[in-house]
Write a structure and sequence with these properties.
GO terms for molecular function: acyltransferase activity, transferring groups other than amino-acyl groups. This is GNAT family N-acetyltransferase. Keywords: Transferase. It comes from Paenibacillus paeoniae. This protein is α+β, with helices and mostly antiparallel strands. It folds into 2 domains: about 1-125, 3-Layer(aba) Sandwich (Aminopeptidase), CATH 3.40.630; about 135-275, Gcn5-related N-acetyltransferase (GNAT) (Aminopeptidase, 3-Layer(aba) Sandwich). Helices cover about 30% and strands about 30% of the residues. The chain contains 8 helices and 13 strands. It has a 13-stranded mixed beta sheet with strand order 1-2-3-4-5-6-13-7-12-11-10-9-8, sandwiched between helices. β5, α3 and β6 form a beta-alpha-beta unit. The longest helix is centred in the middle third of the chain and has 16 residues, at about 155-170. The radius of gyration is 20 Å and the shape is globular.
Length: about 280
């Protein structure tokens, strides 16, 4: 447990930051439960190699960051403007020596954090992506799409590496070599949650169940090569994985880049509903 006292004329409140543990997210503050779908990465980060994982003593603020990655920040919507400002300022002061590479949070919180942190540290920031979080509690069946789903196996490493390279360029604008994605493909296959949609014997789409938390399972790495798009393959594979998740008694969720209206439309057509926007901001 760490006591952090803010300095400054308007920052006299003493704020208690304590460790954020995975078990804290099993029964979190009720206001986090309302925002949990959009903040699924807290479950992942707190179980991994953390640079920081903190929460306020009252549970209405959380921050978690994996080593060398952007941090995730959540503040309860129940907090008033003064409380939000004080808490964000306190967090920025705790992070002043860390040179945080970026932040993910709801758009208003992300902007307020970045403007405060930039003024304090003399850095700049820019938005890299704006996402919508979606959940699905009842999936609509996909009819008339040829092919079938199957788990990815070791024989699929080369084609999955091609798909991952395409996904990186489409999603992040970062061209990478197929060779660099071979180890990633091997890890995803070994985890046992990556699936392919086959048309005949040809893999035409992929999707992955990235993580399961107490109430949700997150789908990611949804990718269809350009020559196979707009044929229903992505809808089919995401629909099948969503059905699998629902049979496990969990709610399916995923993030979609808001600059990709087609993908957002695909998810809504399957029965996914909007659960909150997330701004992904780079600090440099």
């Amino acid at each position: 447990m760490e006591l952090f006292e803010q300095a400054g004329e308007n920052w006299g409140k003493r704020l208690m930051f304590i460790d954020l543990l995975p078990e804290d997210l099993v029964r979190p503050h009720p206001s986090f439960l309302r925002d949990e779908a959009a903040n699924q990465l807290f479950h992942v980060i707190t179980q991994g190699d953390c640079a920081h994982r903190w929460k306020s003593e009252d549970g209405r603020m959380m921050f978690a960051q994996s080593v060398d990655y952007k941090g995730w920040l959540w503040l309860s919507k129940e907090l008033n403007a003064k409380d939000r400002t004080e808490r964000i300022a306190a967090l920025c002061n705790k992070l002043v020596k860390d040179r945080l590479p970026g932040i993910l949070s709801d758009p208003d919180t992300a902007e307020q954090f970045c403007s405060t942190y930039a003024a304090l540290c003399g850095v700049s920031y820019r938005a890299e992506m704006n996402m919508e979080a979606y959940t699905c509690a009842s999936v609509r069946p996909v009819i008339g799409v040829p092919g079938q789903i199957r788990p990815a196996g070791s024989q699929d490493v080369p084609i999955i590496a091609v798909f991952l390279a395409g996904f990186s360029e489409d999603a992040y604008g970062h061209p990478v070599t197929t060779e660099s994605q071979l180890p990633v493909a091997e890890r995803l296959i070994a985890a046992g949650n990556l699936s392919l949609w086959l048309h005949g014997d040809t893999p035409v789409s992929m999707a992955n169940i990235a993580h399961r938390s107490p109430r949700h399972a997150r789908i990611n790495s949804v990718y269809t090569p350009g020559e196979h798009r707009k044929k229903g393959f992505a809808s089919a594979i995401v629909g099948e994985l969503t059905s699998q998740i629902l049979k496990e008694g969990l709610t399916a969720m995923l993030y979609a880049d808001l600059s990709n209206p087609h993908a957002n439309g695909v998810y809504r057509s399957l029965g996914y509903q909007e659960r909150g926007k997330i701004a992904d901001i780079r600090i440099y």
